[in-house]
Amino acid sequence: MLAKTAWFAPLWSMEVGETLRLCEALQWVTNVGLDDMDFSLDLKHVVYAVNSNNSNNTNFGSFISHYGIQFSA
Fold it and tell me: Is residue 5 part of a domain?
């Protein structure tokens, strides 16, 4: 079993914080050579954003696009 903790500052909105944690987790599992992973997210808005092919013209949508987070449903 592997585990990791991370601290992000400054405080972010819940959606940005959840996305940052997801980015960090994806980078970490890639770095340690893990694949076929399942991730659990708390915010439906974040889940929809990373699974959607639709463009989102909000600041949050720009954040998702900037980090290139995209999953296949």
Answer: no
